[in-house]
Amino acid sequence: MLNSYLTQIRMNLLLTLRNRVALFFSYIFPLIFFGIAGVNGGGGNGLQVVNIVLGLGVLGSGLFGVGMRAVQDREQNILRRFKVAPIGPGAIIVSGMVTSLVLQVPNIVFMVTLAHRFLGAPWPTQPVSLLIFVSLGLLAFASLGGIIAALVNSMQEGVLLTQLFYFPLLFLGGITFPIAAFPPWLQTVAQFIPSTYFTSGLQPILRGRETLFDNLASVGALALTATLGTLLAAKLFRWEKEEKLRPAAKLWLLAVLGPFIVLGAWQMHAKTNIAKEKVLSREVQRNRTALIRDARLFLGDGTVIDQGSVLIKDGKIAEIFTGPAPDAKSLRADAIEAAGKTLLPGLIDVHVHLGSPGLPITDPQAYQNPDATFDRELAAYLFSGVTAVKSAGDQLDMVLKHRATIASGEHLGAELFAVGPLFTTAGGHGTEYSQYIPESFRTNFDAQFVRLPKSADEARTQVNDLKQRGVDGIKAILEGGGGSAIFNRMDPAILRAISDAAHAAKLPIVTHTGNAQDVAEALGAGVDGIEHGAMRDRIPEAIFTKMKAMGVTYDPTLSVMEAMQAYVDGKTDLLDRSLVQQVVPRPWFAQVKDSLNSPGAQAARKAIGAYPFRLDLAKLNLAAAYRAGVTLVTGTDAGNPMVVHGPGVHRELQLWVEAGIPPAAALQGATYNAARLLRADQRIGLIRKGYDASLLLVDGNPLQDISATERVSTVFFKGERVDRSDLFNQK
To answer: What is the three-class DSSP state of 641?
Structure first.
């Protein structure tokens, strides 16, 4: 029996190698598509071209190569001659599948080599997984072709039925169009398409991120389809067209598709493959190569290049050129003309609260759906050129969840750093917010939002627990309030224990302070950053000298003080800025004006007005910190009334310049210095070779006019040229 299989395979190979049509469709046809895909989808994204060409080859060789060859041989009475020979249907079917496989293996090598040579694609790091996976895909689709060949009665009928399968497999399975670009309902339909599981496994294997073992569902479905399909194709095999099949036999085709029907039904519930498709589509965008030409470069550490260009490749800064720009085509890159513009690292806001919309609005949807709120706010930051933010007090589970979706690429928004819950004391600042939460939810809210250590040991335990949860830092509150808002104040000894535990866990710790005494005691506790500083008195120069010596950062959050005064006065001028108008939903503006005059808002405005804070003193403290050489970082306290998520950093920079800070120093505070506080300065905050290509291109020169940062031209996030118009439409 084995000899009959080997003999048939050898004969089939020899005949196929003499068939010019078969060779054309096996090699020349994919080469044509390679050229088309390379021109339209190049830009350094050669692996995507390989994905398209291999998908076309597997579908074509599988469905048409095996199925149509069998139908043709039956119509020409070639199979009738084998009927009396000592050979079974299995040998004929297997020989066709093996022939297609043998033809495709060199095609894989050929296409990968072409992509590497002409499109700059890296060599696959998982060649064995790639070869096995493509082979499984080919065998699965070839088995479907074998069943179709058994069911049809003529070439015409065979071509029609094959194309009924081929086009959905081609266009809905991610081979030609990314599934993530489909509307949600069509993405769900795609989960029932067999080629979806081929492409969702092939792409990460090509990119070296996954192996066969990371795609067991796809591998299992393809292997099961190949096995069942081959067995059924042999069972339904017809030597001559006069042989009849029962009508019910056609239902066997549905049985072979069973694994994908089961997978599709599961994905309707789990949606894990839809999420994976989003990630894969995002990787395609981030792996493109682009050359930003002839911009003014602010590198982040104060260095300025008057004329320079930056090459982005595979999500990283690949090269920095000074002087006239090189030719983009020679670098296989898309050209982005930036003459007259300034390129700087993406801005960073180290103090935001994503649990509040930042406007006094009445729309319940802004508060009842925190997932949508977080997504929108992180999108607003990226829209505004802010590529990283630090949550400095939100519900922990929500922050960690959205940090993961942003990091994976499933959702597009500013990179999120998690610092919280807030360390405070019973009756301390931070505990008052739970009164606004329905009583049935308060216990859970408090567990997510605050920590109230009563001893040094308890403080250490709580810090270590948060370290295990994966937070990026610790925040403590050392303020007693003032005016009508008096809070219990944390024991500085407890703060010291929190600080020591944070450092032992290699976590940065920042402390919210309200006056000069708070700042002095926070420094005594050994913290890494001061938030707000003093909002109602001057900080002595000696304290700033100590801050400089200790390497402690200073985040003045001037924008929240300006916004609080505007809220108290009932003014909405801060909302008239262009960038604010672009990120805030239109209905909210009317709600703000209505809510400011509501009885509840008037009471809140009166209470905030009784709290002692002075923007003029805060500006003087910032200027003194700059003169002392303190490391300055930008935070907005966005989420408070009138501090809109996204544009806030731009206003913060303007207030810094008003306070006497040079624009270059202000920009450094919003880029490199902020990245240092986040312990991420080894990959963001600078325009430097090897760093993440998270960049902001603005019209004009912010080194001369700081308001130019608001004139956003283009935003890049991890190499992806962000489609800002679509950021708020993500599903």
So the answer is: coil
pLDDT value at position 630?
A: 98
Domain boundary among 266, 286, 306: 286
Query: Considering 286, 308, 326, which residue would you say is the last residue of a domain?
Result: 286
d(Cα 486, Cα 480) in Å, to the nearest integer? Answer: 6
Beta-bridge partner residues of 116: none
In contact, 48 and 41? CB cutoff 8 Å: yes
Q: For residue 118, what are the contacts with CB-CB under 8 A and spacing of at least 6?
A: 38, 46
CA–CA distances in Å: residue 315 to residues 170, 284, 326, 587: 28, 10, 20, 37
Chain segment 657-703, per-residue pLDDT in tens: 999 999 999 999 999 999 999 999 999 999 999 999 999 999 999 99
Residue 352 parent element (H or E): strand 347-352
Give the C-alpha separation, 694 to 683, whole Å: 10
Q: What is the mean pLDDT of residues 184-194?
A: 93
Number of separate domains in the chain: 2
653 vs 125: which has the higher pLDDT: 653
Q: From residue 481, how far is each of 488, 491, 611 by CA, in Å?
A: 8, 15, 8
Which residues sit opposite 386 in a β-bridge?
Answer: 347
Lookup: tokens for 65: 């190569």
Q: Considering all CA atoms of the chain, what is the largest pairwise distance in Å, rounded to the nearest integer?
A: 104
Percentage of residues of the chain with pLDDT beyond 90 = 57
Give per-residue burial for 197-214: e unless 16+ CB within 10 Å, then b. Answer: bbbbbbbbbbbbebbbee
Which range marks the domain in which residue 359 is found? Answer: 349-689
pTM: 0.89
Tokens for 692? 């993440």
